[in-house]
Amino acid sequence: MSLFGAPTTSYDHVTGLANDPRPFPSEGEVEHLGHALMTEILDTFGKDAMEDYASMIAHCIIGGIHAAQQRIEREYDRATNELTGLHREFDGSEVKDSQIQDATDRSRVFEAVAVVLETFRRSAERTYEVQTGDVWTPYRGSTSNRLTTFAVMEAGETLRRKRQHAQKGAEPTAKYVVFRGVQAANTQADAERIFAALDYAKAQCPDMQLACTGNLGSEKIAMMWAKNNNIIVHKSDFSKAAGRRAPFVANDTLLNLKPVMVFYMPTPVNPLNERDAEASGIVLNVAQKAAERGILTFKVAAAAKIAA
Q1: Where in the numbering of this chain does the YspA cpYpsA-related SLOG domain appear (predicted)?
Q2: Residue 217 has pLDDT above 70, yes or no
C-alpha cells in the first residue's frame, strides 16, 4: 500500500501530451523522491541540537519546490495567453497555423513540468505532515492543484463534490463515514493502515464525506487523506461546556449524522509502550454505540487487512 493512496492517471495524461522527445520521470519516481528527501531531512535534523529547527527547514524545502512550480506556472500562463491571442487572430494561413502549434507545444511542456513539480511538492508535503502531525501551508498565497483540475475535467462526480466544498456546508442527505482514532497512532505504519481503510470506504461509497473530531494523530492523518482525495470533511469539535464528557459528546454528535460506516482505531499499529497498547475507551465507545445502531463498523487494526 503506497503512503500516498491510489495513483492518478492525470499525471501520465498531462506529461504524455508534452511534445518533448525526452521522457518525463514517472509519477512513482517523483513521489519516491519527495518522500525520500523529506524523510532524510527529518531524520537528519529532527534530533539533537537541530531538533528545534527541523520544522522550519522542512517548510523552506517544500516552499522552495512550491516556488519553482509557481515560476513554471507563470510561464504556462504566458504561453496560454499567447495561444489565446493567436486563435483570435487566426486567418487560415500556414504561418498562423504553425505559430499556434508552437504555442500549443510550449504550453503543454510548461503544464507537464508544473505537474511534475506539483507531484514532487505534494509527496514531500504529505510525508512531512504524516511524520510530524503538522500541516504545511505556503507562507503566502495558496497551492494550485493541476492534477485535481484534470481529474475534475474528466470526472463529473468530482466536480459536483468540489461545488459542495465551495458552499462550505454538507448536504442534509450527505453520506458520512466517521473515523475515530487515538492520538498515539501517528507513524507511517499507522498512516498506511488508515489510508487503506479510507480507500476501502471510498470504494464502497464514492460520494462519501469524512466526519471526525480533527484530534491529533490518527484523525489528522485521516484529514490528510481527505485533503488528498478531495473529500469534504465535517469536523465535530469538542465542547468545552461538556467538561470531561466532551470526547463522548463528540462521539454522539458524529453518530447523530447517521453515517453509513464507522471506522475506529483504538490503538496504534505498533504501540511503543503499555499505555499505548491499551485500547482507548473513548474510541471503543463510538464503535459500541455505532454497532448498537446497526451501523457498519470496522476496526482499523494492526493486521494487513481491515478487521470488522
Answers
A1: 177-231
A2: yes
- DSSP code at position 177: E
Considering the entire predicted model, what is its pTM? 0.49
Q: Which residue, 121, 154, 187, sits at the end of a domain? A: 154
What pLDDT sits at residue 104? 82
Element spanning 264, H or E: strand 261-265
Q: Find out whether 190 and 269 touch, Cβ atoms under 8 Å.
A: yes
Q: Supply the pLDDT for residue 303.
A: 54
Could you report the per-residue pLDDT of 174-193, keeping only the tens digit for each?
789 999 999 999 888 899 99
Domain termination residue (choose one: 154, 179, 200): 154
- Cβ neighbors of 268 (< 8 A, separation 6 or more) are 182, 184, 185, 186, 187, 189, 190, 218, 276
How far is CA 43 from each of CA 34, 35, 59, 257, 269, rounded to the nearest angstrom?
A: 14, 12, 15, 41, 21
**Pick from 226, 20, 37, 187: which is nearest to 120 by CA?**
37
Which residues, 6+ apart, have CB-to-CB distance to 91 below 8 Å?
none
Clarify whether residues 160 and 150 are in a common domain. no
Closest CA to 265 of 180, 190, 203: 180
